Amino acid sequence: MNHCGIAFDVKNRPCLDSEFMPVLLFNRAFLKTAKKPVSIAVERASGQMAVYHTFVHGTPEMAEADRYYVNRLVKTALWMKGGFKLYVSDEGVYQALKGDFCAGGCQDFDFDYMANVFEHPFEIVLTSDIPQAKDSPKAMGGHLKGCRIGFDAGGSDRKVSAVIDGESVYSEEVVWFPKTNSDPDYHYDGIVAALKSAAEHMPRVDAVGVSSAGVYINNRTMNASLFLKVPKDLFDAKVKDIYIRAITDTFGDIPYEVVNDGDVSALAGMMSLNEPNVLGIAMGTSEAVGYVDQQGRITGWLNELAFVPVDCHPEAMQDEWSGDIGCGVKYFSQDSVIKLAPRAGIELEESLSPAEKLKVVQKLMAEDDPNAAKIYKTIGTYLGHTLAYYYELYGCKHVLLLGRVMSGKGGDIILEEAKRVLADEYPECAGKLLPGLPDEKFRRVGQSVAAASLPEV
């Protein structure tokens, strides 16, 4: 394979997508000939800094490859860790990034999104004085003592649990429609109703933990699909502090934590495995990811790997939201199943919703349809290559594979193929990276119970 003049071999190619170009293999081939050092730092909230020391070629002949490499590196850093300011040590790299990450540039979506999330204009500066790396992970979760409420806000239902000394004494699931409702009072009233329902089953409420899809900084909602239809002025006025208001209005001054649902999934995985360093990947409507580090802490990183590039092919599938191509959302979600179905000879009716199309393929897989099996094997090959890349990014030991794409026989095929590709093409990961499916203990812990354990009393 060859991309931007960089040649590399892919030993394991997906059976339904032979043109797939794993980012990790491109990066490794690129760095074999790149000798000019360059440093890039990405600043995010509270002065936290992610720093990357790498290399480019710095020659006119390799300008295209250099620009592509640093573009994808910065894109990955922004969606893995978040940030609003880049510090760049090299003039050529600085000019390339200035042209890409700007209004009207090819990465204008990322430029605008990060500025809104961090409430700070997106900046790129050229400097020889690259800041030092700085992280502020928080020891969070695993606190089981007392009377706690765990609230899990999903796109189609909301779950709440009343938990006393680590045991769930009451749980309920209520269908709601947050993604289609433009009135933030609808969301607020639903959250408060759930909190009050759980509180009725305990003598008191000592703390509340919230698991919710979206980006949360200091317990504030910076971006979340749950509030998709809420106008910006109302979002700023009523949604950014919606969980803080709902908890304090209902219970007064008690401890609380609001955390991305992916991180809470990883926390639940750590609680069930009794081991830290867990990456949780939920393949459903999108690719939702969370991470608990080597010390069992939540990092505060975005972990939005749905928008991290995994495929270098110039004609890779485009994500409709960001406008970018080759990103995880089109490889590790129901969109991937839908994308691959025609290639496997499975025609899906256009009138069906994405979730219904997935169910059609799952039904075929339950009947051992060989064409459906090819879809899941292809996703497994994607995953094997990408898990090696995620391992390089995170150093994670355990990977828990969740979500409806992983359910049933299809999930078993994905896991088996991913393990095979890892062992065959990335032997350096052998014994260090352990992908698996959640067990019964994980299901007993549950998202809302894990959320209840977030605040320290």
Poorly predicted regions: none
Helix content: 25-40%
| Euclidean distance between termini CA atoms | 55 Å
Please give the count of helices.
14
Report the β-strand fraction as a percent range: 15-25%
- The 3D shape can be described as globular
Radius of gyration from the alpha-carbon trace, in angstroms:
22 Å
The count of DSSP E runs of length 2 or more, i.e. the number of strands, is 19
Strands of the widest sheet, in order across it, are: 10-9-8-11-14
**Largest sheet geometry:** 5 strands, mixed
The helix/strand class is alpha/beta
Overall average residue pLDDT: 95
Summary, kept brief:
By secondary structure, this protein is of the alpha/beta class. Helices cover 38% and strands 21% of the residues. The mean pLDDT is 95.
Explain the overall architecture.
There is one protein chain. 38% of the residues lie in helices and 21% in strands. It has 457 residues and is α/β, with parallel strands linked by helices. The protein has a five-stranded mixed sheet with strand order 10-9-8-11-14. Strands 4-3-5-6 form a four-stranded mixed sheet. A four-stranded mixed sheet has the order 16-15-18-19. The longest helix is centred in the last third of the chain and has 25 residues, at 370-394. It starts with a strand and ends in a 5-residue tail after the last helix. The model has no long low-confidence stretch (mean pLDDT 95).
